[in-house]
Each structure stands twice: as C-alpha cells, then as structure tokens.
Amino acid sequence: MGLTGLFLISFLVVHVTLNSFIFFNDGGASFNAGADFMAHNPVVRILEIGLFAGLLLHIFQALLLTLENRKARPTPYQVVNGGANSSWYSRSMGILGSLLLLFLVVHLGNFWVPTKIAVFSHAEHDTFAGMKEVFAQWYFVAIYLVGVISLLYHLLHGFQSAFQSLGLNHKKYTPLIKKTGIWFSIIVCALFAAMPVTMFLGIIK
Amino acid sequence: MSHGNMNLTLKVWKQKNKDTKGRFETYDAKGISPDMSFLEMFDVVNEQLISSGKEPIAFDHDCREGICGMCSMYINGRPHGPKGGITTCQLHMRSFKNGDTIVVEPWRSAAFPVIKDLAVDRSSFDRIMSAGGFVSVNTGNAKDANNILIPKDDADTAFDAAACIGCGACVAACKNSSAMLFVSAKVSQLSLLPQGKIEKQDRVLNMVKQMDEEGFGNCTNTGACEAECPKSISLENIARMNREYLGASFTQNKV
C-alpha cells in the first residue's frame, strides 16, 4: 500500500509540473509541447503501463485490506467516538480513494481518451484547447474540485503513512517527513485546483 | 447517600457466551459517588442486582491500580472511557455528569471472542507471545548485571515498550481491530536489548504470522491505538516492527 502509494505520488509530481505550463499563459504553446512529448515518447509510454499497473495494484491492495479488516470486527460497536483518537481523513481513506477513482474515470474520459484516439489515428491534437473546452462547463469544474479535495485529504494521511508502513521512522526525519507531506499535499492540490478555476474564470486564455 | 452523588443510566452489553447473540440492557445506577472508580460503580450496581435476585453484569478486573490490563470496557465509544493514558479502574465517576447515559460495550474483535457480557477472551495475545515473545536462555547461575553494557537510551526505549500491559485497548480502538501496537511493543522490548537481538529475525516473522492467523486486522496508521493506549506506547514501535519484518523477510537465511 505504502510502496504503490509513493509510486503514485511520484507520478503526481510529473503531472502537476507539466500541467503548470498552462500558467505561462502563452495560449497553451509550452503546455502543448509538453503534452506532445508525453504522448509520443516511447519511455513515457512504457512508464504509462507501469502507472496503470501501480494504480490497479494500489486499488487491489486496498480492497484486500478492507475485506480483511471487516472480517476482523464482525460485531460493530454501537457508539464509536473516533474523533477522540484519530483524524477523520485517516479513517476515511477508502471513501476518499473511491471518490478519487470516480473522478479518475471522468478525468481519463476528458483528456486521456481523446489524446489516445488522436495518437493512434496520427491526428494533430490540441490538448490545451480540449482543456479550455472542458473547463468552460461549471459542472466539470465542480467535479474537478471535489476530486482535488479528495486527493488533498488522501495525501495528507497517505504521504506520511507510507513512510510509517515501510518502517521509515526516525526521531530526526519523521517530523520533517510529516511537514513535507502536509506542504506537498497543499501545494500539489492548490496547483491542480487552480487549473480548472483559472480557465473557467478566463484568466488563462 | 451523601451530597453530590449521581444517578446514571447504563446501557450495557449482555451476552451469555461466545456462541449466543448479545443485546444491550439498561440499568439504573443510583447514588454513585463521584469519587468512585468506574469499576466500583459497577460493583455497586452488581450488589443491587444480586440483592434483588437478578444476574450481575460480568466484567474483567484484577489489580484495580492500572497495571494488569484486565478491565476491558469500551465506554461511550472509547476504550477505557473518556480520559487518555488510563485504564477503566483509574477512571473516576467525576468524569461523568449526573443524569448521563453511559454505553458500555466489550472489546469488539474477531480475535477477542466474548466470554460473557463485558469479559472477552484475549488468549490470542498469549498465543502471539508463545510464537516468539521471549528470549531463549540457558539456565544456570545468574550472570553479573553489568556483563553486557547497554546504552541508557536503548534501555529507556525498551522499557517504554515493555510498559505494555497487553490490555487490548489498541485492538479495541483501531477501526481495523489491528493488534500492531501490542505486537510491535513486544517485538521492540526484546529486539532493542542485546539478549533479544540474537533472535530478532525469527521472532518478528513468527509473531506477525501468529498475529495474522488470529484474525486481527491490518494497520492503516490512523494512530487511534497510540492515543487510547493506557501506557502511551508509541507508534514508533510499529515502524520498528515493520522495518524488522521487511528486513527479516528479505535477509533471513531460511527458505
């Protein structure tokens, strides 16, 4: 869970960096150059298969753990005061992850599928124009914001939790890992959230 | 009945044995002194039940000074009640208000079957200990205490882990009913010291294997166990166990 989680986090770094090219506000020239490189580079193509495998493995592990955990408590408590001993999002990783998965279906439908169709039919594809089209609709902006908020809380627990699961705990470095996790989650999610919002408001042209 | 005594309503889990279905029953606890412990309050209620010819509520208790770990009560949604770092016997009735309704449940875990009412069978913990929670030694004369030098920090960390009383509050608090805090405390208290280091690979592999066989859930690092532990055992122990387990899985010289 931790290993696949960290692997998916490494993908987020690439994704958010490349997408942030839209903030150059150059009509999508640098962003489309980046998107074109990602769509045609053979190394990236192989990594893409690895990414899907990692995502599926992460989901599979989560399902397996959830089933085992359910079985470990056949009779539930009548009263549970979970807020007294843990954060709500650390207890809701399954729900947050499911929301993320639903978001991903919409997200892949919006961008990944059209790009793939273009690549396989050797057609020109303007990803930036596609982005502007999607984010002109308020409901897509709303769905993306829900997705980003789910990601924020999923990361707030997941980032530091991954290190704990791998046994990487140290008096000196654990506080640093925890702080990095919080800042990483906030910065990545703020950048992702800014994309649909700025496009919807017409700040990015 | 002296001034300031409280009247409370108790909703308590009643279950004949592990094979029958349980249910909640409501009891009145009248004239309870705020200075009583939670268990003494149960004693008063049970005295009243016995004198009126009814069956008393079964609950585990032993030392009544916070060191035996028997008093397994899940009170208003938290193991050992609303205060941190204590057992049920150390919980005073002044932590509640006159007229409160208190819901008391047993530890809920497949690995802790209910014996009767609030008493659960925690022998799964014993079986985990028998799987590796010990140091093999040749018997003979006691060695000189300073034969093996141990750094003070190591001794302190091992002692903090050894403070675990095996009460099972970690399992009860965990949303996955995972026993990772208990097992990791036991693994740590031994592997941190030179006498226990020698067998640390076999120990961690065998104890984790037994833990899984007992049907405990998995750790998702919510930290509820650490927050509810009456001895404040640290999550660092879980990380240490994960580290030792991964290391032992890769490097152990057995097939």
CATH architectural category of the largest domain in chain B: Orthogonal Bundle
Over all CA atoms, what is the radius of gyration of chain B? Answer: 21 Å
CATH class of the largest domain in chain B: Mainly Alpha
Helix percent band of chain B: 25-40%
- Rounded average pLDDT of chain A: 95
Extended strand count of chain A: 0
Share of helical residues of chain A: over 70%
State the distance separating the first and last CA atoms of chain B.
69 Å
Mean pLDDT of chain B: 95
| Largest binding interface between chains | A-B, 31 and 42 residues
Q: CATH homologous superfamily of the largest domain in chain B - what is it?
A: Alpha-helical ferredoxin
Q: What's the SSE pattern of chain A?
A: HHHHHHH
Count of β-strands of chain B: 7
Rounded to the nearest angstrom, the radius of gyration of chain A is 19 Å
Main beta-sheet annotation of chain B: 5 strands, mixed
General shape of chain A: globular
Output the strand order for the largest sheet of chain B: 2-1-5-3-4
